[in-house]
Amino acid sequence: xxxxxxxxxxxxxxxxxxxxxxxxxxxxxxxxxxxxxxxxxxxxxxxxxxxxxxxxxxxxxxxxxxxxxxxxxxxxxxxxxxxxxxxxxxxxxxxxxxxxxxxxxxxxxxxxxxxxxxxxxxxxxxxxxxxxxxxxxxxxxxxxxxxxxxxxxxxxxxxxxxxxxxxxxxxxxxxxxxxxxxxxxxxxxxxxxxxxxxxxxxxxxxxxxxxxxxxxxxxxxxxxxxxxxxxxxxxxxxxxxxxxxxxxxxxxxxxxxxxxxxxxxxxxxxxxxxxxxxxxxxxxxxxxxxxxxxxxxxxxxxxxxxxxxxxxxxxxxxxxxxxxxxxxxxxxxxxxxxxxxxxxxxxxxxxxxxxxxxxxxxxxxxxxxxxxxxxxxxxxxxxxxxxxxxxxxxxxxxxxxxx
Length: 403
Fold this sequence. Notes:
By secondary structure, the protein is α+β, with helices and mostly antiparallel strands. The protein has helices at about 1-30, 55-70, 85-100, 105-110, 190-200, 215-220, 250-255, 265-275, 275-285, 380-385; strands at about 35-40, 75-80, 80-85, 115-120, 125-135, 135-140, 150, 160, 175-180, 185, 205-210, 225-230, 230-240, 290-295, 315, 325-330, 350-360, 370-375, 390-400. Strand 9 (about 175-180) and strand 10 form a beta hairpin.
Protein backbone atom coordinates (compact mmCIF):
# COMPACT_ATOMS: atom_id res chain seq x y z
CA UNK A 1 0.00 0.00 0.00
CA UNK A 2 2.82 2.38 0.86
CA UNK A 3 4.52 1.72 -2.48
CA UNK A 4 1.21 2.41 -4.26
CA UNK A 5 0.87 5.75 -2.45
CA UNK A 6 4.44 6.65 -3.42
CA UNK A 7 3.66 5.72 -7.02
CA UNK A 8 0.47 7.82 -7.06
CA UNK A 9 2.34 10.74 -5.48
CA UNK A 10 5.05 10.46 -8.13
CA UNK A 11 2.51 10.57 -10.95
CA UNK A 12 0.84 13.57 -9.31
CA UNK A 13 4.14 15.42 -9.03
CA UNK A 14 5.00 14.67 -12.65
CA UNK A 15 1.66 15.93 -13.94
CA UNK A 16 1.79 18.97 -11.64
CA UNK A 17 5.28 19.81 -12.88
CA UNK A 18 4.15 19.55 -16.49
CA UNK A 19 1.15 21.74 -15.65
CA UNK A 20 3.28 24.39 -14.00
CA UNK A 21 5.61 24.45 -16.99
CA UNK A 22 2.59 24.76 -19.30
CA UNK A 23 1.21 27.61 -17.22
CA UNK A 24 4.58 29.37 -17.14
CA UNK A 25 4.94 29.07 -20.90
CA UNK A 26 1.37 30.31 -21.46
CA UNK A 27 1.94 33.32 -19.22
CA UNK A 28 5.27 34.30 -20.69
CA UNK A 29 4.62 33.58 -24.37
CA UNK A 30 1.21 35.15 -25.01
CA UNK A 31 0.78 36.17 -28.63
CA UNK A 32 -0.36 39.70 -29.16
CA UNK A 33 -3.82 39.92 -30.61
CA UNK A 34 -3.08 43.56 -31.48
CA UNK A 35 -5.62 44.95 -33.91
CA UNK A 36 -8.44 42.44 -33.20
CA UNK A 37 -11.40 44.51 -32.01
CA UNK A 38 -15.19 44.55 -31.94
CA UNK A 39 -16.69 47.37 -33.98
CA UNK A 40 -20.35 48.35 -33.68
CA UNK A 41 -22.28 48.03 -36.94
CA UNK A 42 -25.86 48.40 -38.10
CA UNK A 43 -27.93 45.32 -38.78
CA UNK A 44 -28.52 46.75 -42.25
CA UNK A 45 -24.93 45.76 -43.07
CA UNK A 46 -25.71 42.11 -42.35
CA UNK A 47 -27.69 40.13 -44.98
CA UNK A 48 -30.01 38.25 -42.62
CA UNK A 49 -31.71 36.03 -45.16
CA UNK A 50 -33.85 32.91 -45.22
CA UNK A 51 -31.07 30.36 -45.73
CA UNK A 52 -31.89 28.31 -42.63
CA UNK A 53 -35.00 26.56 -41.40
CA UNK A 54 -36.49 28.51 -38.48
CA UNK A 55 -37.22 25.23 -36.69
CA UNK A 56 -33.47 24.41 -36.73
CA UNK A 57 -32.58 27.82 -35.28
CA UNK A 58 -35.11 27.25 -32.50
CA UNK A 59 -33.52 23.87 -31.68
CA UNK A 60 -30.11 25.52 -31.53
CA UNK A 61 -31.45 28.25 -29.23
CA UNK A 62 -32.74 25.57 -26.86
CA UNK A 63 -29.27 24.05 -26.83
CA UNK A 64 -27.57 27.38 -26.12
CA UNK A 65 -29.99 28.21 -23.32
CA UNK A 66 -29.38 24.81 -21.70
CA UNK A 67 -25.59 25.10 -22.07
CA UNK A 68 -25.56 28.58 -20.52
CA UNK A 69 -27.90 27.68 -17.67
CA UNK A 70 -25.62 24.79 -16.68
CA UNK A 71 -22.54 27.02 -16.75
CA UNK A 72 -21.23 27.97 -13.31
CA UNK A 73 -20.10 31.46 -14.34
CA UNK A 74 -22.29 34.54 -13.87
CA UNK A 75 -20.68 36.75 -16.50
CA UNK A 76 -19.17 36.15 -19.92
CA UNK A 77 -16.63 38.08 -21.92
CA UNK A 78 -15.99 38.44 -25.64
CA UNK A 79 -12.84 40.53 -25.97
CA UNK A 80 -13.65 43.86 -24.26
CA UNK A 81 -17.39 43.18 -23.90
CA UNK A 82 -18.69 41.89 -20.58
CA UNK A 83 -22.07 40.17 -20.71
CA UNK A 84 -24.34 39.16 -17.86
CA UNK A 85 -25.13 35.49 -18.38
CA UNK A 86 -28.74 35.73 -17.25
CA UNK A 87 -29.37 38.65 -19.60
CA UNK A 88 -28.04 36.57 -22.50
CA UNK A 89 -30.23 33.60 -21.50
CA UNK A 90 -33.32 35.83 -21.37
CA UNK A 91 -32.46 37.39 -24.73
CA UNK A 92 -32.04 33.98 -26.38
CA UNK A 93 -35.32 32.83 -24.85
CA UNK A 94 -37.06 35.97 -26.19
CA UNK A 95 -35.55 35.34 -29.63
CA UNK A 96 -36.86 31.78 -29.55
CA UNK A 97 -40.36 32.95 -28.56
CA UNK A 98 -40.49 35.57 -31.32
CA UNK A 99 -39.35 33.11 -33.99
CA UNK A 100 -41.90 30.56 -32.74
CA UNK A 101 -44.62 33.19 -33.20
CA UNK A 102 -43.60 33.82 -36.81
CA UNK A 103 -41.50 36.98 -36.43
CA UNK A 104 -38.57 37.34 -38.84
CA UNK A 105 -35.05 36.63 -37.61
CA UNK A 106 -33.88 40.06 -38.75
CA UNK A 107 -36.43 42.08 -36.77
CA UNK A 108 -36.10 39.89 -33.68
CA UNK A 109 -32.31 40.30 -33.65
CA UNK A 110 -32.64 44.05 -34.23
CA UNK A 111 -34.80 44.42 -31.12
CA UNK A 112 -32.81 42.15 -28.84
CA UNK A 113 -29.13 42.54 -29.75
CA UNK A 114 -26.40 45.03 -30.56
CA UNK A 115 -24.31 43.92 -33.53
CA UNK A 116 -20.50 44.04 -33.34
CA UNK A 117 -18.21 42.93 -36.16
CA UNK A 118 -14.93 41.25 -35.34
CA UNK A 119 -12.20 43.01 -37.35
CA UNK A 120 -8.42 42.83 -37.42
CA UNK A 121 -6.34 45.91 -38.22
CA UNK A 122 -9.43 47.47 -39.73
CA UNK A 123 -9.96 44.59 -42.17
CA UNK A 124 -13.25 42.72 -42.49
CA UNK A 125 -13.95 39.21 -43.72
CA UNK A 126 -11.06 37.45 -41.97
CA UNK A 127 -13.09 34.53 -40.62
CA UNK A 128 -12.17 31.19 -42.23
CA UNK A 129 -15.24 28.93 -42.34
CA UNK A 130 -14.85 25.20 -42.91
CA UNK A 131 -17.37 22.40 -42.48
CA UNK A 132 -17.74 19.03 -40.80
CA UNK A 133 -20.53 16.48 -40.84
CA UNK A 134 -21.74 13.11 -39.57
CA UNK A 135 -20.82 10.39 -42.07
CA UNK A 136 -22.52 7.02 -42.47
CA UNK A 137 -20.63 3.76 -42.89
CA UNK A 138 -21.39 0.09 -43.33
CA UNK A 139 -19.85 -1.93 -40.53
CA UNK A 140 -19.75 -5.37 -38.95
CA UNK A 141 -19.55 -6.63 -35.39
CA UNK A 142 -17.06 -9.35 -36.35
CA UNK A 143 -14.06 -9.27 -38.62
CA UNK A 144 -14.17 -10.95 -42.04
CA UNK A 145 -12.57 -10.52 -45.47
CA UNK A 146 -14.73 -7.48 -46.29
CA UNK A 147 -14.79 -5.76 -42.90
CA UNK A 148 -11.23 -5.85 -41.55
CA UNK A 149 -10.46 -2.31 -40.34
CA UNK A 150 -11.01 -1.95 -36.56
CA UNK A 151 -12.69 1.00 -34.87
CA UNK A 152 -11.05 1.13 -31.45
CA UNK A 153 -12.47 1.98 -28.08
CA UNK A 154 -10.25 3.61 -25.44
CA UNK A 155 -7.11 1.47 -24.87
CA UNK A 156 -6.78 -0.07 -21.43
CA UNK A 157 -3.40 1.61 -20.87
CA UNK A 158 -4.44 5.13 -21.97
CA UNK A 159 -4.40 7.56 -19.03
CA UNK A 160 -5.91 11.05 -18.99
CA UNK A 161 -4.54 13.60 -16.51
CA UNK A 162 -6.59 16.79 -16.16
CA UNK A 163 -4.23 19.53 -15.01
CA UNK A 164 -6.97 21.52 -13.26
CA UNK A 165 -7.35 18.62 -10.79
CA UNK A 166 -3.84 19.41 -9.47
CA UNK A 167 -4.45 23.13 -8.95
CA UNK A 168 -7.17 25.66 -9.81
CA UNK A 169 -4.61 27.98 -11.37
CA UNK A 170 -3.50 25.37 -13.92
CA UNK A 171 -4.80 25.32 -17.52
CA UNK A 172 -8.06 23.44 -18.08
CA UNK A 173 -6.53 20.84 -20.39
CA UNK A 174 -6.14 17.08 -20.28
CA UNK A 175 -2.86 15.35 -21.01
CA UNK A 176 -3.20 11.89 -22.57
CA UNK A 177 -0.42 9.41 -21.98
CA UNK A 178 0.66 6.14 -20.43
CA UNK A 179 2.38 5.06 -17.25
CA UNK A 180 5.72 3.31 -17.50
CA UNK A 181 7.24 2.49 -14.14
CA UNK A 182 6.91 5.75 -12.22
CA UNK A 183 6.92 7.94 -15.33
CA UNK A 184 3.96 9.51 -17.13
CA UNK A 185 4.84 9.47 -20.85
CA UNK A 186 3.14 10.55 -24.10
CA UNK A 187 0.96 7.88 -25.67
CA UNK A 188 2.01 5.96 -28.76
CA UNK A 189 1.89 7.41 -32.27
CA UNK A 190 -0.53 6.16 -34.93
CA UNK A 191 1.89 3.67 -36.51
CA UNK A 192 2.93 2.26 -33.13
CA UNK A 193 -0.72 1.83 -32.10
CA UNK A 194 -1.35 -0.19 -35.28
CA UNK A 195 1.72 -2.33 -34.55
CA UNK A 196 0.79 -2.91 -30.90
CA UNK A 197 -2.78 -3.76 -31.89
CA UNK A 198 -1.42 -6.85 -33.65
CA UNK A 199 0.90 -7.80 -30.79
CA UNK A 200 -1.36 -6.99 -27.81
CA UNK A 201 -4.96 -7.00 -29.04
CA UNK A 202 -6.26 -7.42 -25.48
CA UNK A 203 -5.16 -3.82 -24.77
CA UNK A 204 -7.31 -2.40 -27.58
CA UNK A 205 -11.08 -3.13 -27.41
CA UNK A 206 -12.72 -3.15 -30.88
CA UNK A 207 -16.19 -1.60 -31.24
CA UNK A 208 -16.80 -2.68 -34.84
CA UNK A 209 -15.09 -3.26 -38.18
CA UNK A 210 -15.15 -1.06 -41.30
CA UNK A 211 -14.37 -1.86 -44.95
CA UNK A 212 -11.60 0.63 -45.56
CA UNK A 213 -8.85 2.55 -43.72
CA UNK A 214 -10.10 5.58 -45.65
CA UNK A 215 -13.48 5.17 -43.91
CA UNK A 216 -11.69 5.03 -40.55
CA UNK A 217 -9.73 8.20 -41.29
CA UNK A 218 -12.94 9.99 -42.30
CA UNK A 219 -14.59 8.90 -39.05
CA UNK A 220 -11.58 10.09 -37.04
CA UNK A 221 -11.52 13.46 -38.82
CA UNK A 222 -15.25 14.09 -38.32
CA UNK A 223 -15.25 12.76 -34.75
CA UNK A 224 -18.62 11.01 -34.97
CA UNK A 225 -20.73 8.97 -37.34
CA UNK A 226 -23.48 6.45 -37.90
CA UNK A 227 -22.54 2.78 -38.34
CA UNK A 228 -24.95 0.47 -40.18
CA UNK A 229 -24.64 -2.91 -38.47
CA UNK A 230 -26.98 -5.19 -40.40
CA UNK A 231 -30.49 -3.80 -39.89
CA UNK A 232 -29.40 -1.57 -37.00
CA UNK A 233 -28.01 1.96 -37.10
CA UNK A 234 -25.78 2.98 -34.19
CA UNK A 235 -24.28 6.33 -33.28
CA UNK A 236 -20.55 6.37 -32.64
CA UNK A 237 -18.70 9.27 -31.07
CA UNK A 238 -15.27 10.56 -30.08
CA UNK A 239 -14.14 9.21 -26.70
CA UNK A 240 -10.45 10.17 -26.47
CA UNK A 241 -7.29 10.57 -28.50
CA UNK A 242 -3.63 9.75 -28.05
CA UNK A 243 -3.05 13.47 -27.44
CA UNK A 244 -0.53 13.92 -30.25
CA UNK A 245 -0.68 16.64 -32.93
CA UNK A 246 -2.96 16.27 -35.95
CA UNK A 247 -1.40 16.54 -39.41
CA UNK A 248 -3.76 16.99 -42.36
CA UNK A 249 -3.41 14.40 -45.12
CA UNK A 250 -4.68 17.04 -47.54
CA UNK A 251 -1.82 19.37 -46.68
CA UNK A 252 0.68 16.53 -47.15
CA UNK A 253 -0.76 15.75 -50.61
CA UNK A 254 -0.68 19.43 -51.53
CA UNK A 255 2.90 19.89 -50.35
CA UNK A 256 4.08 16.85 -52.31
CA UNK A 257 2.29 18.02 -55.45
CA UNK A 258 0.05 14.94 -55.56
CA UNK A 259 -3.11 17.09 -55.55
CA UNK A 260 -3.50 20.71 -56.61
CA UNK A 261 -5.15 23.38 -54.48
CA UNK A 262 -8.16 23.36 -56.84
CA UNK A 263 -8.64 19.61 -56.30
CA UNK A 264 -8.08 19.67 -52.55
CA UNK A 265 -11.39 18.44 -51.15
CA UNK A 266 -12.30 15.28 -49.28
CA UNK A 267 -13.83 13.59 -52.33
CA UNK A 268 -10.56 14.00 -54.29
CA UNK A 269 -8.45 12.87 -51.33
CA UNK A 270 -10.67 9.80 -50.88
CA UNK A 271 -10.46 8.86 -54.58
CA UNK A 272 -6.66 9.16 -54.52
CA UNK A 273 -6.39 7.11 -51.30
CA UNK A 274 -8.54 4.29 -52.67
CA UNK A 275 -6.45 4.10 -55.86
CA UNK A 276 -3.11 4.22 -53.97
CA UNK A 277 -3.69 2.26 -50.72
CA UNK A 278 0.00 1.60 -49.98
CA UNK A 279 1.01 5.22 -50.58
CA UNK A 280 -1.98 6.32 -48.49
CA UNK A 281 -0.83 4.15 -45.58
CA UNK A 282 2.70 5.52 -45.86
CA UNK A 283 1.65 9.18 -45.85
CA UNK A 284 -1.02 8.69 -43.18
CA UNK A 285 1.69 7.56 -40.75
CA UNK A 286 2.89 11.19 -40.73
CA UNK A 287 -0.35 12.03 -38.90
CA UNK A 288 0.57 10.94 -35.36
CA UNK A 289 -2.88 11.62 -33.92
CA UNK A 290 -5.21 8.66 -33.32
CA UNK A 291 -8.85 8.92 -32.21
CA UNK A 292 -10.75 6.37 -30.10
CA UNK A 293 -14.55 6.02 -29.97
CA UNK A 294 -17.57 5.01 -27.92
CA UNK A 295 -21.20 4.16 -28.70
CA UNK A 296 -23.86 6.81 -28.07
CA UNK A 297 -27.69 6.72 -28.01
CA UNK A 298 -27.94 9.84 -30.17
CA UNK A 299 -25.66 12.12 -32.09
CA UNK A 300 -23.62 13.85 -33.06
CA UNK A 301 -22.91 15.40 -29.67
CA UNK A 302 -20.87 18.57 -29.33
CA UNK A 303 -18.26 19.13 -26.64
CA UNK A 304 -20.85 20.89 -24.44
CA UNK A 305 -23.09 17.82 -24.34
CA UNK A 306 -25.83 18.75 -26.82
CA UNK A 307 -26.84 17.15 -30.11
CA UNK A 308 -25.58 19.39 -32.92
CA UNK A 309 -28.06 21.21 -35.17
CA UNK A 310 -27.18 21.21 -38.89
CA UNK A 311 -26.46 24.62 -40.38
CA UNK A 312 -26.56 26.38 -36.99
CA UNK A 313 -24.23 24.57 -34.57
CA UNK A 314 -20.59 25.46 -35.10
CA UNK A 315 -17.21 24.87 -33.51
CA UNK A 316 -15.19 27.85 -32.25
CA UNK A 317 -12.09 28.26 -30.12
CA UNK A 318 -13.53 27.64 -26.65
CA UNK A 319 -10.64 29.55 -25.06
CA UNK A 320 -11.88 32.74 -26.75
CA UNK A 321 -15.66 32.44 -27.17
CA UNK A 322 -18.14 31.36 -24.45
CA UNK A 323 -20.09 28.14 -24.83
CA UNK A 324 -23.52 28.61 -26.39
CA UNK A 325 -22.80 32.16 -27.59
CA UNK A 326 -24.71 33.45 -30.67
CA UNK A 327 -23.16 34.93 -33.83
CA UNK A 328 -24.02 35.93 -37.36
CA UNK A 329 -21.65 35.15 -40.22
CA UNK A 330 -21.95 36.26 -43.84
CA UNK A 331 -20.36 34.29 -46.66
CA UNK A 332 -20.83 32.84 -50.12
CA UNK A 333 -22.00 29.22 -49.89
CA UNK A 334 -19.95 27.17 -52.40
CA UNK A 335 -21.82 25.40 -55.19
CA UNK A 336 -21.65 21.61 -55.10
CA UNK A 337 -23.58 18.82 -56.82
CA UNK A 338 -25.71 18.20 -53.75
CA UNK A 339 -26.80 20.42 -50.87
CA UNK A 340 -28.15 19.41 -47.43
CA UNK A 341 -31.87 19.72 -46.68
CA UNK A 342 -31.51 22.53 -44.14
CA UNK A 343 -30.37 24.98 -46.81
CA UNK A 344 -33.30 27.02 -48.13
CA UNK A 345 -31.26 29.38 -50.33
CA UNK A 346 -29.34 28.87 -53.55
CA UNK A 347 -25.57 28.47 -53.14
CA UNK A 348 -22.98 30.48 -55.03
CA UNK A 349 -22.78 34.09 -56.06
CA UNK A 350 -24.43 36.11 -53.31
CA UNK A 351 -23.52 36.68 -49.69
CA UNK A 352 -25.90 35.01 -47.25
CA UNK A 353 -26.22 35.44 -43.52
CA UNK A 354 -26.23 32.48 -41.14
CA UNK A 355 -27.22 32.53 -37.49
CA UNK A 356 -24.76 30.24 -35.69
CA UNK A 357 -24.01 29.25 -32.11
CA UNK A 358 -20.90 27.98 -30.31
CA UNK A 359 -21.81 24.34 -29.63
CA UNK A 360 -18.54 22.52 -30.25
CA UNK A 361 -14.78 22.75 -30.57
CA UNK A 362 -12.03 21.08 -32.59
CA UNK A 363 -8.30 20.53 -32.43
CA UNK A 364 -7.79 22.56 -35.63
CA UNK A 365 -10.10 25.41 -34.59
CA UNK A 366 -7.71 27.92 -33.06
CA UNK A 367 -7.90 31.69 -32.76
CA UNK A 368 -10.71 34.23 -33.16
CA UNK A 369 -11.01 33.86 -36.94
CA UNK A 370 -11.81 30.15 -37.26
CA UNK A 371 -15.19 28.47 -37.41
CA UNK A 372 -16.21 24.92 -38.34
CA UNK A 373 -19.88 24.68 -39.39
CA UNK A 374 -21.76 21.44 -38.74
CA UNK A 375 -23.43 20.70 -42.07
CA UNK A 376 -25.54 17.66 -41.15
CA UNK A 377 -25.62 13.90 -41.80
CA UNK A 378 -24.89 11.88 -44.90
CA UNK A 379 -23.55 12.39 -48.41
CA UNK A 380 -25.18 15.75 -49.16
CA UNK A 381 -23.85 17.27 -45.96
CA UNK A 382 -20.48 15.72 -46.76
CA UNK A 383 -20.36 17.40 -50.17
CA UNK A 384 -20.89 20.82 -48.60
CA UNK A 385 -18.43 20.17 -45.76
CA UNK A 386 -15.82 18.99 -48.26
CA UNK A 387 -16.09 22.17 -50.36
CA UNK A 388 -16.60 24.71 -47.59
CA UNK A 389 -13.44 26.72 -47.11
CA UNK A 390 -14.58 30.31 -47.38
CA UNK A 391 -13.72 33.67 -45.92
CA UNK A 392 -16.55 35.34 -44.06
CA UNK A 393 -17.50 38.33 -41.96
CA UNK A 394 -18.21 37.55 -38.31
CA UNK A 395 -20.69 39.41 -36.11
CA UNK A 396 -21.04 39.02 -32.35
CA UNK A 397 -24.56 39.41 -30.89
CA UNK A 398 -24.43 41.36 -27.62
CA UNK A 399 -27.78 41.37 -25.77
CA UNK A 400 -29.55 44.66 -25.09
CA UNK A 401 -31.04 45.38 -21.70
CA UNK A 402 -34.54 43.90 -21.76
CA UNK A 403 -37.51 46.11 -20.76
